[in-house]
Amino acid sequence: MNIRPPIRMQFSPAGQQGAGLLEVMISILIMGIGLLGIAAMQATALRNSQSSLERSQAVIQTYTILESMRANRTAALAGEYNLAQTCDPPAANATLAQSDMRAWITSLEQTLGNTANTCGTIACNGADCTVTVQWDDSRATGNAGAGAANYRVATRTQL
């Protein structure tokens, strides 16, 4: 009876060359893909934060002109604050209402961007007034350069 001892396989370091390098390259590839994903999420978060800021600014601007109208209620009820969609500040400053509207449109352009799409509208029917603010929100939609994505905020109130 011939009993052989178990055969032990020994691996020499020369037989394992490159396995460690391959593992490192795969892990670097996976980490790179993960970092690109994090960068994309950060860019999306920045776009959405900018859009949120612009929406908040539009609401603040809406309340600003409404408070000016409440301060000059007689002129507002007479229709002096009615304003068709305007993207450029009115030129005349003859009355307090015209001065308020000029300051409002100028403020819109400063806070929401001085583009052709930054506009304001005021429509009053007696004491029932609707103020609409429109601006270019194309950066939030990710279509910058591919056409404007206009966004509107309308506020309806009683003076």
Quick tags:
4 strands, 4 helices, 18% strand, 4-stranded antiparallel sheet
Sheet/helix structural class:
alpha+beta
Question: What's the multimeric state?
Answer: single chain
Shape: rod-shaped
DSSP helix count?
4
> Rg, please?
32 Å
* Model regions low in confidence, pLDDT < 50 over at least 5 residues: none
Describe the sheet with the most strands. 4 strands, antiparallel
Q: How do the helices and strands follow one another from N- to C-terminus?
A: HHEHEEHE
Measured by DSSP, the beta-strand proportion falls in 15-25%
Q: Share of helix among residues? A: 40-55%
Structure, explained:
The protein has about 160 residues and is α+β, with helices and mostly antiparallel strands. The protein has a domain at about 55-159. Helix content is about 50%, strand content about 20%. The protein has four helices and four strands; from the N terminus they run ααβαββαβ. It has helices spanning about 20-70, 75, 95-110, 140; strands at about 85, 120-125, 130-135, 150-159. Strands 1-2-3-4 form a four-stranded antiparallel beta sheet, with helices on one face.
List the helices and strands and how they pair.
Layout: H1 19-71, H2 73-77, E1 83-86, H3 96-112, E2 119-125, E3 128-136, H4 138-141, E4 150-158
Antiparallel strand pairs: 1-2, 2-3, 3-4
What would you say about this model in short?
The protein has 159 residues and is of the alpha+beta class. It is built from four helices and four strands, in the order ααβαββαβ.
